[in-house]
């Protein structure tokens, strides 16, 4: 039996915004492999290319040249609808700003991705309740966003990302709006999801103490990978 292809692979990925003298090369030929089950932190200064790389992984942007492969499939060869389905069925997103619907319960927020899938209401509610329980929010299903703390709101956002059973959780500065204590609680949760439930995690962060929760740290600079290795905790 042949080895499974990597979860995520970049082959000489370049991304250029604009044209002529106004052209900016955000990625300058990046090669990268992320395997199933890894927890990877992506770091780098502003303008280093880390957010562009994350957007390409999340099918929110496409390379100017080179190849992005997801589970061995060249994403560039997919049509727009196929990329949307890949994003909807295989990727879960967590953002700095939570992005919850304000006058909607935690359960309804978590149900939303299943609504887009056409999942029947009873199944939807059961899956959403289970996802909330997985992030430690059993009993808070009927609370609105306004009735939840920042940390609880981010837990709802993580539950929403997990409810579709994605292959990878993409987290963009997931602790950026949280105080230090709450940040550590959220990172403990993300690390346990990776460790105990085998969910692959790719996280962009500028905070070294947050990156330390990952098993591997990739640092971008000037559109290239400057360093890539195990974190001290994983070494």
From TrEMBL:
**What are the entry keywords?**
ATP-binding, Cell inner membrane, Cell membrane, Membrane, Nucleotide-binding, Translocase, Transport
Listed Pfam families: ABC_tran
GO CC annotations? membrane protein complex; plasma membrane
Q: Which domain of life is it from?
A: Bacteria
Classification via Gene3D superfamilies: P-loop containing nucleotide triphosphate hydrolases (3.40.50.300)
What InterPro entries does the entry give? Answer: AAA+_ATPase (IPR003593), ABC_transporter-like_ATP-bd (IPR003439), ABC_transporter-like_CS (IPR017871), ABC_transpr_LolD-like (IPR015854), MacB-like_ATP-bd (IPR017911), P-loop_NTPase (IPR027417)
A single GO molecular function term of this UniProt record: ATP binding
Coiled-coil blocks: none
Instruction: Report domain ABC transporter positions.
Output: 8-235
Which family does the record claim for this protein? Belongs to the ABC transporter superfamily. Macrolide exporter (TC 3.A.1.122) family.
Q: What is this protein called?
A: ABC transporter ATP-binding protein
Species the sequence originates in? Propylenella binzhouense
